[in-house]
Specification:
By secondary structure, the chain is an alpha+beta fold. The chain has a domain of 260 residues: Glycoside hydrolase, family 65, N-terminal domain (Beta-galactosidase, Chain A, domain 5), CATH 2.70.98.40. It is built from 18 helices and 38 strands. The strands form 10 sheets. Strands 1-2-10-11-12-13-20-17-16-15 form a 10-stranded antiparallel beta sheet. Strand 18 and strand 19 form a beta hairpin. The structure holds beta-D-glucopyranose. Beta-D-glucopyranose binds next to loops. Pfam families: Glyco_hydro_65C, Glyco_hydro_65m, Glyco_hydro_65N. Keywords: Glycosidase, Hydrolase. It comes from Streptomyces lanatus. GO terms for molecular function: hydrolase activity.
């Protein structure tokens, strides 16, 4: 999309200069606003045309039966799906007697701008109705980051040539009709008419609708307050019925006059609160929003984001496209997590209904790493949500005849929602991913209160699961058999390296936490013997290795399997999952997404540099990247093993996943993992950042096309800025007590009055491995990025460590 002529490359905004109805659904995703609690897709105010109407409240879902032709023990019986709740974005307009509908009449101009600094989505358009009345319509909207239950719109209409009579209908609408999904397994099973009316009201310029989801029984409330200003004679009327509440403003406007409407919307939902309780809750939220007013909300939003960017901004010189994309990505990841407050962070955030609104390991392994160093309070809340789902995870473990907790592969409120299938049901690694996120958060923040309470319990229950899932063989080696790792084209295999290494880290971290808090651990029933058994298992974990090829195996026996017939697979047969039976994918060497390569990133200390390079070279030609989670991981490892040009191409793929709709499903919502992966590719890839004890290590190296990369991180209450150029890196402590960090393995101390500037050396070119034919990362148009020196051939310069100057 961004390469579409109507999208401009600018550092702080995403601007669309013309409306292309063919791109409407995707644009609704990229222009979505959210605070993690409320999600408003970028639907046009007038409601139509639309790609996919979408208003979401984190956690509001409907349940449905999961049908099986043949039932098996332990198959989940019901699924959960995100619900499109009451739409508060609707503002319809009648110009004289014709509806403002961009499919008719003449559209002279249409511009939408998502401003990443103010957090506002602006729209301006000029349109002439079929009867020849020309008007300008302007709107701005926000989903408040400071008032969690509130969203707001400012809407203005003015005639441009002659007097017009306008009617503006500002509405709350429930049970909107949704387009049917086209059978893509990654889209949603949207329930029809999911909301049952409980109450409706209109009083003056205030509107309220209360509903209940039919099967899950959740109560949902939306209330609206308006401030309308227009010329004398402007009339207001309000009305409501079960699924619609409406304020109608009628006015005759002369050229130059305006009708202006401020619409404040408050949302609430609950599984437990009574109807009066919920009614009062939204009225109270509206009162708070009212006291700030539109201008106050705009000012608060800006303040919130100024503070955020001062801790999280990433600057990229040399590639304007990446500069824009990383800010766009950072903004959307923030939106997904900012005010989720002990609710899940879905794979699409609240930008669409893709994957039914489910949360996967994407959260802990991709989204939380970025937030840990930029908005740690969101990570604490997200992990607390996981902890709140422990009862369901324990139940699932018991059902599977395991100990501890087995967290779900996909869920909205905690129960396993993956109908049985090998890739989901056996993907136990999600347990270790959660544990990894706990360890990362605690070491980055030193949050002891969380560590001893929430962290400990999550580590203990996940470790218990591993210990009961795995077993020691006659030689004492610890195996975890019959599991699925990250690569979903390989399922139910023995000793998946990623899973084993992550499980080992999980077991060790749990034993360490028990040693830190023995009394609390005892209350969870952990004794010395149990913790010792975890350490034994971790120390003895088996990691399959092919001595013949001198590479680590993705799972035991992987390198022996028949290679996939890449030459006989045409480019239009990707993603393979839509064109080939899974049984065939499972028995061949073909990798959907980084798996062993991801293990080398997350458990880097296990592999030496030589193996990292060789493993990367082995798996690269087998990896088809049919998942949006892959490119960013490959970027990080390509950078680490010295293929900076390749890493740069993967960075582009991760960064433009949604802006260029690379997987053709941005319409269903944004790919949060890939957005966070953009940050990861830059910070962990070219910055070489890795957690190291209570601090961080860096190994900076820039690709030719990027002349400067700077990023900010929060660690242990300090604010750090890292600025990398080809010949030097500068570590600056912006705030906090002196910090010892690691530069290419050497300790370096920074303090607020002593920044450290270290020289970097260039290293020679290395020939990168190839990809499966037709799956090479797309080489992008370097003219867009104004990227001096970006070349299309493999020009690879690695910078490395150093001697230092201060
Ligand atoms: C990937 C999973 C991922 C899921 C949701 C799948 O295509 O293979 O790893 O968790 O999408 O993003």
């Amino acid at each position: 999309m961004i390469s579409h002529p109507s999208y401009a490359v600018e550092p702080w905004v995403l601007r669309e200069t013309a409306l292309d109805l063919g791109l409407l659904a995707q644009s609704e995703s990229v222009f979505a606003l959210s605070n993690g609690h409320i999600g408003w897709r970028g639907n046009l105010e007038e409601g139509e045309p639309h790609g996919l109407p979408g208003t979401y409240l984190n956690g509001v879902h409907e349940i449905h039966a999961l049908p099986y032709a043949e039932v098996g023990y332990g198959y989940p019986e019901s699924g959960q799906t995100i619900v499109n709740v009451t739409n508060g974005k609707i503002v319809r307009l009648l110009v004289d007697d014709e509806p403002f509908d961009l499919r008719y009449g003449r559209l002279h101009s249409h511009e939408r701008v998502l401003d990443l600094r103010s957090g506002l989505l602006h729209r301006t358009c000029e349109w002439t109705s079929p009867a020849g009345r020309r008007v300008r319509v302007r709107s701005s909207r926000l989903v408040s980051l400071t008032q969690r239950s509130v969203a707001a719109i400012l809407y203005e209409v003015e005639p441009l040539e002659c007097d017009v009579r306008v009617v503006v209908q500002s509405e709350l609408v429930a049970n909107e009709e949704l387009p049917q999904s086209g059978g893509d397994p990654r889209a949603a099973q949207a329930p029809r008419s999911p909301l049952e009316s409980l109450e409706h009201a209109s009083e003056g310029s205030r509107l309220r609708l209360l509903h209940r989801t039919r099967r899950s029984g959740l109560r949902v409330a939306a209330a609206v307050g308006h401030t309308v200003s227009g010329p004398e004679g402007t009339q207001l009327r309000s009305e409501s019925s079960g699924d619609v509440a409406r304020l109608t403003a009628t006015s005759t406007l002369r050229a130059g006059e305006r009708l202006r409407l401020e619409k404040l919307v408050a949302y609430g939902w609950s599984a437990t609160r009574t109807l009066p309780g919920l009614r009062d809750q939204v009225d109270a939220a509206l009162a708070a929003a009212d006291s700030a007013g539109w201008r106050g909300l705009v000012a608060e939003q800006r303040q919130y984001l100024d503070r955020f960017w001062s801790r999280a901004d990433v600057e990229v010189d040399g590639d304007a496209e990446i500069q824009q994309a990383v800010r766009f990505a950072t903004f959307h990841v923030l939106q997904a997590g900012a005010r989720a407050e002990e609710r899940a962070l879905p794979a699409k955030g609240l930008t669409g209904s893709g994957y039914d609104g489910h949360t996967f390991w994407d959260t802990e392994s991709f989204v939380l790493p970025m937030l840990t160093y930029t908005e740690p309070s969101a990570v604490r809340a997200a992990l607390r949500w996981r902890r709140s789902t422990l009862p369901a995870a324990r139940q699932r473990a018991t059902q599977l005849r395991l100990r501890g907790a087995a967290f779900p592969w996909r869920t909205i409120e905690g129960a396993e929602c993956s109908a049985y299938w090998p890739a989901g049901s056996a993907a136990f690694h999600v347990n270790a991913d959660i544990a990894d996120a706990v360890v990362r958060y605690v070491s980055a923040t030193g949050d002891e209160e969380f560590d001893q309470d929430c962290g400990l319990e999550l580590l203990v229950e996940t470790a218990r699961m591993w210990r009961s899932l795995g077993h020691h063989d006659r030689l004492g080696r610890f195996h975890i058999d019959g599991v699925t790792g990250p690569d979903e084209y390989t399922a139910v295999k023995n000793d998946n390296t990623y899973t084993n290494l992550m499980a080992a880290a999980n077991l060790t971290a749990a034993a360490d936490a028990v040693a830190r808090y023995p009394d609390r651990a005892a209350r969870l029933g952990v004794d010395d013997e149990e913790a010792a058994a975890w350490r034994d298992a971790a120390d003895a974990v088996h990691v399959p290795y092919s001595s013949e090829l001198r590479v680590h195996e993705q799972h035991e026996g992987f390198t022996r399997l028949e290679p996939w017939d890449f030459a006989g697979t045409s480019p239009d047969q990707y993603p393979l999952l839509l064109h080939f039976p899974y049984y065939d994918l499972y028995r061949k060497q073909v990798v959907k997404q980084a798996d062993l390569v991801l293990a080398m990133f997350t458990r880097g200390e296990f592999f030496d540099a030589e193996h990292k390079a060789r493993n990367f070279a082995y798996y690269e030609p087998l990896t088809v990247r049919d998942s949006s989670l892959s490119a960013c991981c490959q970027a990080v490892m390509a950078a680490e093993v010295g293929h900076l040009g390749l890493a740069y191409q993967y960075l582009h793929e991760a960064a433009l996943m949604d802006l260029e709709d690379l997987e053709m499903n941005t319409r269903d919502g944004l790919h949060m993992a890939s957005l966070a992966g953009t940050w990861m590719a830059l910070v962990a890839g070219f910055g070489g950042m890795r957690p190291r004890g209570d601090s961080l290590g860096f190994a900076p190296k820039l690709p030719e096309a990027i002349s400067r990369l700077a990023f900010r991180l929060e660690v242990r209450g300090r604010r750090l800025r890292v600025e990398i150029e080809h010949s030097r890196v500068t570590y600056t402590l912006l705030e906090g007590a002196p910090l010892e960090l690691w530069h290419f393995g050497e300790p370096v101390t920074v303090s607020t009055d002593a920044q450290r500037s270290l020289r970097l050396e260039r290293q020679p070119h290395r020939t990168p491995p190839g990809q499966p034919p037709g799956r090479e990362p797309r080489s992008h148009d370097s003219s867009v990025g104004a990227s001096q020196g970006r070349t299309s051939s493999w020009t690879e310069m690695t910078t490395s460590r150093t001697e230092m100057t201060i």
